[in-house]
Amino acid sequence: MKFLVLNLKTYAESSGKNLTPLIKAAEAAAAAAPGVEVIVCPQQPQLSESSMRTSLAVFAQACDAASGGRGTGSVIAPELRAIDCKGTLLNHSERKVPLDVAKKVCVEAKAANLRVVACADSVAEGVALAGLGPWAVAVEPPELIGSGKSVSKEQPGVVREAVAKIKAANPKVLVFVGAGVSNQQDALAAVRLGADGVLLSSAFVRAAEPRAVAEAIALGLEG
Fold first, then answer.
1. Model confidence over 95-105: pLDDT tens digits?
2. Which of 37, 140, 161, 215 does the annotation list as catalytic?
């Protein structure tokens, strides 16, 4: 099984009524590529609605290290599970957290039966995060995010190194790559370099035809 994680961020194209076509596009990709699990990460206020609307796995874009009680404004793991979220992103480049906070989130997410995709801006950070026991680590070189230049083509050595070192640190952790992934060839290259999946955002959310993009990438992941 390979994995396609679609982070919808807070673009206008994923806000309000615009969410529905993106969910349908993601579902079409999942149907086109049965060997790929497609995961969608809507904006936080859309999580409950999304979980009820689709059979796809819905992940939060972030989860806070707060177990309940004090913590005004926090999004906590048990409540995410209560609305049928299946997981969360953690430490995305736009929402970095210290390693000790990431560790607490991983512990609380595991207790709530949530999968964690821990994002890393380098192989070294990916190795450190792998030691915390997330479900997956996604390595995204920050200079390529939103560039349209795929890490799997521009920096294949980074992908190879990430897979080797993260798997060595924790063989149970899946390794995803992101940053610039935008077409079928990018996804296929990532898989051939050893990645278990890809994480992308703007190439899907802001595409003229999101369904075509998602389907092509999912088919690329199937090889």
1. 999 999 999 99
2. 140
